[in-house]
Write a structure and sequence with these properties.
This protein is mainly β. The protein contains three helices and 26 strands.
Length: 369
């Protein structure tokens, strides 16, 4: 835009995101600072008389301008910025003399507030890992399900693909309470795997596909620190220093917490069931929570244990993904998922998923008629 053109900056208005309702406010989330220029407009299609919103994070002073292109620009098949600007009708311009930096909060997961289950003695889940966590440091890992801010318990996978679990005391983190399998899932990326841990006193057993894959030690149950008033269970993430982190890149199905240690026969039964049963096939009376994760839409995942510990979904993970028992006929002509009793279900979580504009302010303009 040239400086002798009209400056209708007054047409702009600043719209900041509304403060979230306290009942739906999600836990703190690890922020990522955007180093360069990033932004988007919404909606993508705007009619005369409607508002166009520009969300932008910029590391330096900048200008936002909106123009109506001329007829030649619309008909010319090849791009020509100079010619397009010659016929443009500038509708509004806004100078920002300073940077407008905003953080983004990537990582989708599910969380349950104030679970108050104490330390479960068995945790079971199906997972299909698509990408291993980044090797940032030797302790890099991704959580499948956890109640952990480096203190309580977790089921996850490390940067080399080894399934593992942590059974702590709710106090300080201690590496001795980690237990990892000797084998890696590196060659099984994209395949469903059943992972569970059982705890009997200070003895921990890690199970992979019905086989015991490792043994370790847990914190003495008698020294367990009482959980905080707002204990958080997360699926697809854990926490560090109070911030959601350790995000999983994978699909998760049929997560269950039990108040007692399951035996080998019961762990094998869970593996052989492949999350196909509509109800938990073993130890239903001992369930603390059970999330089948078969949701097809919405922002919550139901607890099937009867305890009402439903999950809230953060950063829109992908729903309605086929589960571990899904038929190989999926995608073939004539296949009907609604009539397939083996389809099951899962939710896909991703470390780079983000709700657009969380924390972004917006500049708005009403397009003239």
């Amino acid at each position: 835009m040239t400086r002798d053109q009209p400056d209708p900056a007054g047409a702009w208005e600043l719209r900041r995101p509304a403060a979230p309702d306290s009942r739906s406010r999600q836990p703190a989330h690890r922020p990522v600072r955007v180093a360069g220029l990033m932004g988007y407009v919404d909606p993508l299609g705007v009619k005369p008389g409607e508002k166009l919103r520009v969300h932008l994070t910029a590391p330096a002073a900048h200008e936002i301008a909106v123009a109506r292109l001329g007829r030649t620009a619309l008909l010319r098949p090849e791009p020509d910025d100079d010619a397009d600007r010659a016929e443009a009708e500038w509708l509004a311009r806004l100078d920002s003399p300073a940077a407008a930096r905003h953080d983004v909060y990537p990582g989708s997961y599910a969380w349950v507030n104030d679970v108050s289950t104490g330390r479960p003695r068995t945790v079971s889940a199906w997972v299909r890992v698509w990408r291993l966590p980044a090797t940032v440091e030797t302790s890099s890992w991704a959580s499948i399900v956890s109640d952990m801010d480096y203190c309580n318990w977790a089921l996850g996978i490390d940067a080399d693909g080894h399934p593992g679990c942590y059974v702590g005391n709710g106090g300080h983190h201690d590496r001795v309470w980690w237990c990892f399998a000797g084998t890696s899932l590196l060659r099984r990326l994209g395949e469903w795997v059943h992972i569970a841990f059982t705890a009997d006193g200070i003895k921990v057993q890690l199970w992979v596909d019905g086989d015991m894959a490792g043994e370790g030690v847990a914190a003495d149950a008698g020294t367990v620190t009482p959980p905080p008033a707002a204990s958080l269970v997360r699926i697809g993430a854990a926490a560090e220093s109070g911030l959601a982190d350790h995000f999983l890149d994978g699909d998760v199905s049929d997560v269950a917490l039990f108040s007692r240690q399951l035996n080998r026969h019961q762990v094998v039964a869970l593996t052989e069931d492949r999350a196909m049963s509509s109800v938990m096939p073993v130890a239903r009376a001992s369930l603390l929570a059970h999330w089948p994760l078969r949701e097809m839409s919405g922002s919550r995942a139901a607890d099937a244990s009867g305890h009402g510990r439903d999950c809230t979904l953060v950063n829109t993970p992908a729903l309605n993904i086929p589960g571990p028992s899904a038929s190989r006929a999926i995608g073939r002509p004539g296949y009907d998922p609604d009539t397939d009793p083996t389809r099951g279900g899962s939710i896909r979580f991703a470390s780079d998923a983000a709700s657009r504009g969380r924390g972004f302010g917006a500049r708005s303009i009403t397009l003239p008629c």
